[in-house]
Design brief:
- With 454 residues, the chain is α/β, with parallel strands linked by helices.
- The protein has four domains: 123 residues, 3-Layer(aba) Sandwich (Rossmann fold), CATH 3.40.50; 156 residues, Rossmann fold; 75 residues, Helicase, Ruva Protein, domain 3, CATH 1.10.8; 49 residues, Arc Repressor Mutant, subunit A, CATH 1.10.10.
- Strands 2-1-3-4-5 form a five-stranded parallel β-sheet, with helices on both faces. A five-stranded parallel β-sheet has the order 7-10-13-6-14.
- A hairpin with a 6-residue loop joins β11 and β12.
- α4 packs antiparallel against α7.
- The longest helix has 19 residues.
Length: 454
């Protein structure tokens, strides 16, 4: 396997010290040189390794340009202990892994093995308890898992972005569980669920007599989370006044309780989350710009369930086992056609909605040991929008032309592979999704794989 190695500094690690059989490498000293090699022989390289810092080139531009030439190629970065904030942006831009220091040869080989075929489908699982909290092995979810592993040991503030129900709090708890603070509490506060006039006392606590009804002193959530983690959900709903007070706590690690002039010091890691666009709220004057940048140290974007539909069967089985255990009922199974039924939906309510659907199906199945498609009563609006075949889908035509049969073949093969993934390899179910006969699907697969093989 050949690796494209990009390093423009004499201080960068030597590939000869890190890469051994079965890996070979092509060393380059600039993005332009790397792109030249890649464009000459795109199929010759299994992965690319970029050593930071780059003196002349932007790392995110390197990702964009390399993926333009070879979209499927894994890109890894080797950096230094201060890479965590930049790593978040690199992973979001398309990098597959970021080392926060020069790895040893074995660690690098293990990472390459899981990112390059044929090891991708059987990616070894991380066995720490926090990894079991994050269900899924899709590429989108693996990026989240890699980010959690990378940043958990730091004290950096984390901002989790994602749609409602996508699992932001689960990721926050995984970060806490993977951190040195795991033995201390993680305290969660939903900023949207508490009225503004009560939220300050909820966060910072109050002394006796601070306001009407304050008959006793109370410690706030920051103090409860001392030496642990405070998870602030729906941070966008904080009032401007509380935003200023939160900014001070993040900067100085101290605050004053309501009604007190004494300063309380805390050691708290803050993880914030929102489903909204914080930057847009900054532009509207509804969110402080300085607080935005103080929270946006390490951003993690949680993919919606429709962006990781291959995880639906795993999640459904996970919730099935969990709910049966909680309800103390005999374990149940989900029929393959029911899993295909679930995988065909877009789930606007995300993971939370899927969990609710599994719970309802368990109730409706009664004493039956297998959940069927009829047990899942999914609202019509959850179905994906029908593909508008009358709307043109533009495929740019290169100036030097293209191989029409190969391009159309790749499109057909992609649809066939999606259907097989959703049907978990069941060719009959996959054929039904595509309104094909099973024999037709099998024949198309065989001919298309031969046509599109490089």
């Amino acid at each position: 396997m050949k690796i494209l190695w990009l390093a423009d500094s004499a201080a960068a690690p030597d590939p000869a010290q890190l890469l051994a059989e079965p890996y070979t490498w092509q060393a380059t000293q600039s993005l332009g040189e790397a792109l030249f090699e890649l464009e000459q022989e795109p199929n010759a390289f299994e992965a690319s390794i970029v050593c930071l810092p780059l003196r002349e080139d932007d790392p995110r531009a390197a990702i964009e340009e390399m993926l333009r030439v070879k979209p499927s190629m894994p890109i890894l970065f080797i950096g230094s202990p201060g890479i965590a904030p930049e790593a978040a942006h690199l992973l979001q831009a398309g990098a597959r892994h970021c080392f926060d220091r020069t790895p040893d040869g074995a660690s690098l080989a293990a990472c390459l093995a899981k990112l390059t075929p044929p090891a991708v489908p059987s990616r070894p699982m991380i066995h720490e308890p926090w990894r079991q909290m994050l269900v899924g092995n899709s590429p989108a979810m693996e990026k989240v898992i890699d980010m959690v592993a990378l940043i958990a040991s730091r004290r950096s503030t984390v901002l989790i972005l994602g749609e409602t129900g996508s699992g932001k709090e689960v990721v926050a708890r995984a970060i806490h569980q993977a951190s040195p603070r795991a033995s201390k509490p993680i305290v969660a506060v939903n900023c949207a669920a508490i009225p503004d006039n009560l939220l300050e006392a909820e966060l910072f606590g109050h002394v006796k007599g601070a306001f009407t009804g304050a008959t006793n002193a109370r410690i706030g959530r920051f103090e409860q989370a001392d030496e642990g983690t405070l998870f602030l959900d729906e941070i966008a709903d904080l009032s401007l006044d509380l935003q200023a007070k939160l900014l001070r706590v993040l900067q100085e690690r101290e605050f004053q309780k309501v009604g007190s002039s004494e300063t309380t010091h805390v050691d708290v890691r803050v993880i914030a989350a929102t489903h909204g666009d914080l930057l847009e709220r900054v532009k509207q004057g509804k969110f402080r710009e300085d607080l935005y940048y103080r929270l946006h140290v390490v951003p993690i974007r949680i993919p919606s369930l429709r962006e990781r539909s291959s995880d639906i069967p795993l999640l459904a089985q996970h919730f099935l086992k969990k709910i049966c255990s909680q309800e103390r009922i005999a374990p149940k199974n989900i029929a393959p056609e029911a899993l295909a039924h679930l995988s065909a939906y877009s789930w606007p309510g995300n993971v939370r909605q899927l969990e609710n659907a599994v719970e309802m199906a368990i109730v409706l199945s009664g004493d039956r040991g297998v959940l069927l498609p009829s047990d899942f009563h999914l609202p019509a609006q959850m179905a994906p929008k029908a593909l508008n075949l009358n709307q043109p889908h533009i495929i740019p035509l290169p100036e030097d032309g293209l191989d029409f049969e190969a391009v159309i073949g790749r499109i057909e093969l992609n649809l066939l592979e999606q259907a097989l993934a959703r049907a978990r390899g069941n060719k009959k179910l996959a054929a039904d999704m595509l309104r094909l006969k099973r024999t037709t699907l099998a024949a198309k697969l065989k001919s298309l794989e031969a046509l599109t093989c490089p």
